[in-house]
Amino acid sequence: MSRLAIYHFETLLWIDRLGTFRAAAERLNTTQPAISARVREIEDQLGVALFRREGRQMVLTARGRDLVREVEPLCAGFERALTRASGFAGVAGVVRVGAGEIAAASCLPGFVRDIERDLPGVTLEVEIDLTARMAQQLLAGRSDLAFLAGPVAGPGLRTAPIGMVALVFAASAATAATIGSAPDAVPIWALPASSPLHTVTHDCLAATGIPARSVATCGNVRTLIDIVLAGRGAAVMPETMVRADLAAGTLVEIAPRPARALQFEAAIRDSERDPLVLELFRRAGRLQIDP
Q: HEC states along the chain?
């Protein structure tokens, strides 16, 4: 067995988790031919086939499943022992983080700062997106940790609550002055249907009776806020991101605040065994989205 190394088994585990050689190559920052070569080396050494192709997916054979079942806890234990021995001081690696704009505007900067200070060998790759897509990326193994607007319920995810964000239904001062007096209905803006804000927006319209000319969508919260500030309509928005505008009077609440607030959660895959990702998840679980 002298020709097999830890990276061979790490490769095997990531192909099993992600389903394709290409996805495993992206996760391990190498090439697809290198992944194929590693699999051939394992199979040549053991004298058995570990994978078979089903469509685009690479599926473990019975012998492959047995090997993964034996190897996974050993690899996780080895990494855990090394990181604990060093107190995470020498740990290095790339962790892919997904975050929504609300988290990016509140708790994420402090989280990044603390990781850079405490774990200088760790590189964070942050991608901003909507919760539905971030959850899909997490389950597919294309990200390691995510900050999601929830509650997020579903198999395959482990979550930790990090607080609530209040919502406001607001418009610019000029637009707010026209509500109820102008003959034209007010343009309403919302995030896409996959966002919890979309549902809250329709609930607010039904509850308040504010006439809406239409409900347009924008996939970016900051852009949506800028549209409203420019006097082009009204929207349900996270209070944390418009607090200064409300205080200055450039935005005005046009209805009682929605009863529903947005719950936020840090999330990882339930099957996650990487000690570094588990440590970042532990730290993320101590955050508050709106301290």
A: CCCCCHHHHHHHHHHHHHCCHHHHHHHCCCCHHHHHHHHHHHHHHHCCCCEEEECCEEEECHHHHHHHHHHHHHHHHHHHHHHHHHCCCCCCEEEEEEECHHHHCCCHHHHHHHHHHHCCCEEEEEEECCHHHHHHHHHCCCCCEEEEEECCCCCCEEEEEEEEECEEEEEEHHHHHHCCCCCCCEEEEECCCCCHHHHHHHHHHHHHCCCEEEEEECCCHHHHHHHHHCCCCEEEEEHHHHHHHHHHCCEEECCCCCCCCEEEEEEEECCCCCHHHHHHHHHHCCCCCCC
